[in-house]
Design goal:
It is built from three helices and six strands; from the N terminus they run H-E-E-H-E-E-E-E-H. The radius of gyration is 16 Å and the shape is globular.
Length: 156
């Protein structure tokens, strides 16, 4: 992975530690690798991440899939920083308070459509640590993204 990408991910992680914005919800992520269209991270489910039943909140799961897929796409050789087109998530079983969760995101494909902008397809899987068997998968997501438009970036 290029030094520039490492620095960007490091700065973003530091930003998550101090911000009051929504990104603060990702301060618990520990990145193991971020390179070549793949991201591997982990975190421990705390009270900040669970719903009223003590399960990893589905909105948190969605956020994790969104943000890790963006990083995977950014590090792909033909990648870009993208905005979501579509996201499909299968919630297979709950993660509980205290569970350690792995997140694996990988760029599946970059499509060059008929227009000027490509579309990135990223697969993401959340699973319980040390239990990569299919019956221990918490959620699977597929995320479609396209590059930000310059005029959109000005308003963000």
């Amino acid at each position: 992975m290029s030094r520039n990408i490492v620095e960007i991910v490091k700065r973003y992680s530091e930003f998550c530690q101090i911000t009051k914005s929504f990104d603060r919800n990702l301060k618990m992520l520990k990145y193991h690798s971020v390179e070549n269209g793949k991201v591997r991270a982990e975190f421990t489910v705390t009270e900040d991440h669970v719903d009223n039943e003590g399960h990893l909140h589905r909105g948190m799961t969605t956020t994790l899939i969104d943000m890790t897929s963006i990083r995977a796409l950014f590090t792909h050789r033909n990648g870009f920083v993208g905005m979501s087109i579509n996201m499909h998530i299968s919630y297979l079983q709950p993660a509980l308070l205290g569970d350690v969760v792995y997140i694996d995101a990988e760029v599946f494909k970059i499509l060059q459509l008929s227009g000027p902008r490509p579309m990135g397809l990223v697969d993401v899987e959340l699973s319980k640590k040390n239990e990569m068997r299919a019956e221990n998968v918490i959620a699977r997501g597929q995320h479609s993204l396209t590059p930000y438009l310059q005029e959109h970036k000005k308003n963000v």
